[in-house]
Amino acid sequence: MLGRIFALVVKEFLTLLKDKRSRLVLIVPPLIQLMVFGYAATFDLKNVPFAVYNEDRGFASRELLAAFDGSPSFTRVAQVTHESEIAPLIDAKQVLMVVHVGPNFSADLLSGRPVALQVIVDGRNSNTAMLAINDVSVMVDRFNREWAASHDGNLPPSHVETRAWFNPNLESRWFFLPGIVGILTLLVTMLVTALSVAREREQGTFDQLLVTPLRPVEILIGKTLPGFLIGLAEASVITLAAVFWFKVPLLGSLLTLYTGIVLFLLSGVGVGLMISSFAVTQQQGLLGAFIFMVPSIILSGFATPIRNMPVLVQDITLLNPMRYFLLVLRGVFLEGLPFHLLIQHFWPMALIGAVALSVAGWLFRHRMY
Amino acid sequence: MPAADHMTAASPAANPPDQNALEVGGVSKTFHVGARQVQALQQVSFRVRHGVVTGLVGPDAAGKTTLLRLAAGLLVPDAGTITVLGMDATTQSLAVQGAIGYMPQRFGLYEDLTVQENLDLYADLQGVPELARGERYRELMHMAGLEPFTKRLAGQLSGGMKQKLGLACALVRQPSLLLLDEPTVGVDPLSRRELWEIVYRLVREQGTSVLLSTAYLDEAERCDEVVLLHEGRLLAQGTPAALRDTMRGRTYEIAATNIEKRALQYRIAQAPGVLDSLIQGDHIRVVMVDNSPPNLGILLPGVSGIEMAPVPPRFEDSFVALLKEKSGNEEISRAPLADKTLTDLTHADAGKPIIEVHNLQRRFGNFYAVKNVTFSVGKGEVFGLLGANGAGKSTTFRVLCGLLPPSGGTLRVAGADLRLAAAAARARIGYMSQKFSLYGNLSVVENLRFFANVYGASVYGLSGKQGTSRINWALEEFDLAPMAEYTSGDLSLGYKQRLALACALMHEPEILFLDEPTSGVDPLARREFWSRINALAERGVTVMVTTHFMEEAEYCDRLAIMAAGEILTMGTPASIKAQARSEELREPTMEDAFVGLIKAHEQQEAAA
Amino acid sequence: MSADTRRGGSRMRLRGLVRKEFLQIVRDPSSIAIAFLMPIFLLLLFGYGVSLDSEHIPLALVVEQPNADTASFTAAFKQSRYFNPVAYADTREAEQALMAGRVNAIVVLRQDFSRQLRQADGAPIQLIVNGVDANTARIISGYVEGAWEKWLEHAALQRGQKLDVPVQMEQREWFNSELRSRNFLVPGLVAIIMTLIGALLTAMVMSREWERGTMEALLVTPLSMSEVILGKLIPYFILGMGGLVLAVSMALFLFEVPLRGSLWVLFATSALFLVTALGMGLLISTVARSQFVAGLVALIATFLPAFLLSGFIFDIGSMPGVVQAITHLIAARYYVAILQTVFLAGNVWSVILPNVLGLAVLASVFLGLTWRNARKRLE
Question: In whole angstroms, how large is the CA radius of gyration of chain A?
Fold first, then answer.
């Protein structure tokens, strides 16, 4: 039995890796995508272009605006001298934000009258807009506190003491990179498995397998292992890159991490094989792969929190192995969660994998056309 | 009307009489297959005359399809010129394509379009004026006998109907030159006959020139002229009769009463002076190396009760002779299957039924692919299923091999239903599918190793050393050693077939299922293939085979003829031929018998 | 053969091809499903499912010594739609809840809350956020601080004092005043879905004709290659536009995204984008010639780049220069910019025109390469 499975696994590897083109397709794009996506996926604003419309000539406004210029989030790209210039700048997306300082800013401030700093943001991307406003308000707060301290203002003496656990500088890249490990692992398992049975069916070699003494379980193991091993290798490479290139901290144990990777690969390979053995043609296999992959990424909590979804959609995400994998990845990478706290995410992946693999194995002999 | 002179420009009447329809001058063409270079055509020159049917004949990989594609302007030659109707096929390819009709190997039909829609498409593409269409369609549909089916999807037509529709599409604008690439592959003899009638009517009534490629040598005989290609070179050109006549006095038929036919054929094939020998029902047809009469004492020493009679030569004889002279004789007449490891199952319990099928049914929706099929095959028998594409042969096979559940009836293969039996039971059968299913991107030896290992833990115990020696046996026996490292997808069809058979034999099965094992393969490869099968049968292996080659039916001990999912008749080749014997047809061929049965069946259907 | 005949014939050939393709679409429901069911299914799922507007964030409230002050402060949280506060008796228990992911943040009101409150530099409340999801963490901390300030102001007012804050930020969000994330996510989703549809419809159509042997029969007719490409493009374009109309109507009427630009600009630019997306599919299909490779390439090259590099969620301006340069190869990037502008801002030509140019360049590159690779030969 072991010999037969070994023969199958060798055959699968040869069909996947012997051809230069398919070897290239399996190895190169995921690594390139890791690099590109690793840098692309961040909510941290960097060099957001903004313009200043300063009607005040006092030093106070200059001081406040200096804080903007010193911030890595913003880059001043334009100076506005008249109100009518604001709209074209924002409309054309030349600036995301215009900071407007009124004519009597410094004078009012000195005489203790409350003054307003007007910030106009482009709300087309509401998330970016909100992040920009957040950054501005942090700067204004700091200015106020310093002003009050040096000018005897009556400012509330106390403040909120904030501590961010696991990610003290709130770097959003730390949040997204483990997610990208998950996405690319999913992509690779889909590439390896989604067309594998469908292609053998189209070429007639699957019949050939079925008339040998191979049992469905053996075929299943033979088909699972290559996707599993390739996925494991690529997940390891991507993890290494995340840790050593992107410097994401890996606080948890490798054992916990690999338990998660192994279980996720099982569920991913299982679903891929299930799609593939259900499909009669490669085209159907491809369609199935898309229909599985797109929602499993968008509804995984990768970019937008699951909590924000309506209850019905939240329930649907319970079927999504990616959802659990992301929780495991982030937990192990950033929070250093111990094994026992993650068992709640391990078993659903194991269950999905077991069900999908059994269905795939059953379909081998029962899906006939 | 401008469209009108567009039409006449290419109409047959406009051809100057002294010009050839196609002139091929010194054409060479090389393809890159993986890292290898394959020389598809080397310095080929010939002419195709106007108003006749020219056959392009040659074994697999001879370059027939390449040549047709070059003529259609689909490929550019590396060297040489191709002139089609006075135009250069390379530089004026659009004009050439406007003047010819071309039917590619799989007929080029859209299976999800109806007959009418396919015709409309090609009429649009060929620029047939709307006004002329009604008349033309009527003519074509009448000719193809498709009038009742214009609203049917092309995918739901039978193989023969598809082929006629493909032809109608190629003819929609009345071409001066018609190119047909293996138009009759996989089509039953009745439909083939009808196609030939259409082609000849075209030539006769409209003066169309036709160039067609074929692997059926009996069809080559129907051409006015044949062009023989072999490994990219021109072997001969002439009328079939002239080529056939070179073989006069070299062909005989031998029958022996007290020796089994396969053993007889084996001995004849070994004898000196014999070029070719074939089993034909109860006889062995022999072609000698030259026309000195054969000496029975030398041919079959120590065998008594032999009858020998001269028979008229066939075109196939000259073809085989030419090829064997070309490639050297030793390769083919070598002792088939010198296999010492093969278990000798001979006659232990020969004749005991090993495959039993009773009232087998297989339904797809409300369509019966197989209905009420009953037969049994004895141990060591070669049993054939004969029928056109879609007759239900492959479905029957798939059910027998446990690949499809039956909708009704019972079946036993080696005492078990393979679909339900333990995995080990499957180790007793070997299966070779229609498409020669190999792993195309694995090399020859990797394919062999895979199948050896997959069967490795079987009851035959084929592990380690034994597995390796088995691979060596396969490489040796099937002459695959020189190409052991080649990617199997790049092999020619003949070698793919050999490799597929080798893979199916890796575990020495007791029963061998061969689904159209020789489809698309040339006569030489077919002979070689059958010599191996015969040797297996000699050793007691039960062989079940499907085919649509009538001559292959002659090799079987018994055969069943299938049509529309039913068995029409069953028996030995001789008894089936005998059924067709009549006053005007004293020596009916298998094809005559087949056509007669099908016609009778159709009449019965129509009456019901 | 006069030029005139050739043109007339061309019309007829093209008509024949287009009709054939339509008949095939009608007979094979999977293309119709891709064009019409997929946008509905994906938009419903994602339109409702994808949102960056955090609400009901689970939050632990630890009040070490309840009194009137703490009660009035915690009341503010209980009314907020952003938080689901849960009371915990002590900090350790709350921290365990944070570790286990049951809450996203802890607000601790210290034992000496009232005293710290009045002390210079005092920190009566402490906020611990789970920083893993940095975005949510920022939102939480911004909100808690806002709530704190408002409460202080309110408390001061009750004591008859006025708190003066030197500079008050006055924010104005143009185009999307409530900063509803759906307003920018839904147009982005339309772009992503159209990318998928474009690629899926065409990625296999050419390779399928090669594998089924019908391409050979087409090539031997007097068709020119541009006619073959147009014959593929026109039917799937019409189908894709149908899907687009559906997606746009859902965005407008179901998700109530405002449309401030004009409808014709929306459709004209969408048409251009569709040509680009179909062109990419055709290119993949032509170059691959086998359905297997075409499928793999489509899987890699369409969805993830459109999702991550188009500006749909992640701001392109904040990416490093090299990555920004790469985004110029992604057709969805231009389309997302156009859609977000046309929906939320109006016909801003200074945004639309450069992006239209980008799309036009990509479309001609894709179609040009398809045309070059799909020569009328079999090699």
Answer: 28
